[in-house]
Amino acid sequence: MGGNGFSIIQDSAVVTFQALHDQASALAFALPKISSTVVTNDAAIEFRTVSKVAVGSLVAWFMLKAFKEAMANRRLARKLRAQGIPEQKLQSRWWMLGLQRYLVGHAVEPSPHLFSECRASQQLPIIHGEDVDGWGCSDAPKVYLFRLFLGIPVVVLADPKALHAMLTLKSYSFVKPTNPVKLVSNITGTMGMLMIEGDVHKRHRRIANPLFNLKALKPLVPAILASLDEFFALVDQQPASTLIPFHELSSQLTLNAIGHAAMGYNFDAFNGQGSRVTAAYRNMLQHTSLTPWTLLTLQFPGTIGKIPTLQSHRFQNAFKVVESAVKDMLQNASKHPDGHMLIHELLRQNEQDVLSEYELVCEVRSFLGAGHETTAAAISSLVLLLALHPTIQQELHDEVESTAVALEDSDALAKLPLLNKVINEMFRLYPPTFTTYREAATDVTLPMAALGAIEIPAGTRFEIPIRAIHMDPSIWGDDAAMWNPHRWDTIDLVHGTSDVSANRIVKGRRQIGPYDFMPFLAGPRACVGRQFALMELRLFLAGIVQRYTLKTDIKSMDDANLTCAITMRSTNAWVRFEQRSARA
């Protein structure tokens, strides 16, 4: 998810200033009226004096509100710490006269970095009780508290017992924070399954679940392979020694695939600007870049958000194009009730009009957004990793060739051991969804392995550090930071948290629980399109290694320029696709 990740983490803190903005906005709009009265009545006090008094009053009010907010955050943090949750130490305690804990918190601490892919590895010592205040036990707490601006406490949670309660048992008591929802809803709409909560989410989930069972997915294989053939045609036009920016082409590949397989629509993403809808969709994605201005427009939609800009004008035009296209897709799909695309199945599942027209539009937009961006990040990492590990690449090619599996046979591909291990290891070390956030919707009790039952006040913010959990040596072994698909030769994925052995190793095999490996999250809010994404990745990866030898000048994934925004993905995946001799 560089700097963009900082915005996502920080934007919960921006909420603190919502009330301040509203009051300041109201006063600002009132000033012209005050000015007019003063001038027209020829009052003794000049407008400049009034303005100074108003601004001074506003500053004083702002400081008072900020002080009250900081004190409320201090009380919440003390309540959490009193129950045993340790707090990340401040490396310097005195550079702001000791007040940095309540003013800027840990936001300017050099480690863990708030907006870099190295955050995961830097979090691990703290998760295990190092560099924290208030922890004197030998066992790892798997939880710690850090603070953002005005001392807003955020609980970093890696305890599987607590995660089981948060993500599964009490999933609707912990909601997604407001600003990330606002950002993503620019693409998906406000009523897609990614955005909604509670009973509304349950209703949508009942409609969407049948779309992604294997029976419904198998007919989509030819459409996905057609997108892969388009990619092959593009690559084969290039000289064998050409470095190709696969970090860009991966998005075009998956956009075409979701268009063909889910909507029966040709985005034509490889052809320059593509279709009108493709160009509009790209403009919308650019609008979601996490700049300071974007955050301000999200946080203050009634004032700053209404300021006309060239970017907002382009976004509105693009939004209308995509909205109209999605409605046309739904209308066309309704004329073919026996169609086998996801959009046809969506309409069949909604025969009783459980979802409104707007909700259907939002779900299709969600398929489009979530269905191609995360898969693009995943296949980009997979291709680059194989180019960096030629031995694994050759093993995978040999497996695909020796089994003589046809790409059309998705069931057979799903049973190829190394293919699945390569994909799992990519998801472990480079998960597109590298972290996620929750906020307590109500006062709730959260059980923790090391601390017992913790009382969580409503509004408490949480960060679930998925990638840090995936890199934890206590879970994965001392080589957890290395990419090694063969570690999965001796791994058992177990289903219940109580089924994981304390020492992890049972009969020579490592036990990994459902909250130790979460590339698609877990519980009722887990990714509904998991099987579709895995099927796509198997088809893409098997087809690519069967046809090409992958090479790169990049020396390691450290040079891949991993950026952390809505997803974590490489922005430097330059790869050579050299046709294998058997296909020359």
UniProtKB/TrEMBL annotation:
Binding site for heme: C527
Coiled-coil residue windows: none
Cofactor names: heme
Keywords, sorted A to Z: Heme, Iron, Metal-binding
GO molecular function: heme binding; iron ion binding; monooxygenase activity; oxidoreductase activity, acting on paired donors, with incorporation or reduction of molecular oxygen
Gene3D superfamilies, alphabetized: Cytochrome P450
InterPro entries in the cross-refs: Cyt_P450 (IPR001128), Cyt_P450_E_grp-I (IPR002401), Cyt_P450_sf (IPR036396), Cytochrome_P450_monoxygenase (IPR050121)
Family from the record: Belongs to the cytochrome P450 family.
Name assigned to this protein: Cytochrome P450
Lineage of origin: Eukaryota, Fungi, Fungi incertae sedis, Blastocladiomycota, Blastocladiomycetes
